Amino acid sequence: MFDSGVGGLSVLRAIRELLPAENLLYIADSAHAPYGDLTPERIRERSEHITRHLVEHGAKAVVVACNTATAIAVEHLRTLYSLPIVAIEPAVKPAVHRTATGTVGVLATSATLASPRYAALLARYGDRARVVAQACPGLVERIEQGDWDSTDTRRLLQGYITPLLSAGADQLVLGCTHYPFLRGLIEEIVGPAVEVLETGPAVAAELRRRLAAGALLAAPGRGEVRFLTSGAPERVAPVLVRLWREPVQLEVWSG
Ligand code: DGL
Questions:
Q1: Which of 5, 79, 111, 204 is most enclosed, with most CB atoms within 10 A?
Q2: Is domain 2-88+200-252 classified as CATH 3.40.50.1860?
Q3: Is 66 a catalytic residue?
Q4: 92-197 maps to CATH 3.20.20.70
């Protein structure tokens, strides 16, 4: 699995719960976060490089635990590798089915929202409801720094969410795997009338389906979880430990 940083842990958590027997290798590409600010070429390059590393280390499947890398690179990765590549996209489809007001709000990175893949998602489901999107520059950095509830983070988030509420959204799609770590704050801001949607559990279910279909599921038992980062371990480790809530061995990856 990989993400630009710690955000994909929201997906890792769902996978660990559903598939406890699997050995999981998580790469946090923290030296290159946030992906949302990189060019599409660079995001594709990083995604390819990391996927190659995972495949060379015996991965039987790859999970792209990053909406931005999925939006920009997943098709390219699938042309390179034939193993199952499970990816993630903003939960626009369930949101347009659930909305009562007819308006759905989406929070995501600028790169995701600018991608042809997101445009295709809107073309598929956008006629069922009004989908209002908001890019959230600066938010991923705050989560990477472990700044999850300061006044500044709250203010930043409020600024991004308020226009969506004013537009009448009753569904709020967290279209970046980092944002579930702000879920408490987000729910406080939107109140009980707005449903907050994240995608980690759906990705875990899809991974299980793909592994089962390929007869690739691990035998019952307790698999291990390994963490690698391309960033500075002294900066990444404290945030990782707080988010994962289990003892963590963080290995440095020169990738
Ligand atoms: N977790 C990534 C995503 O889901 C973060 C993007 C970024 O690094 O900007 O899009």
A1: 5
A2: yes
A3: yes
A4: no
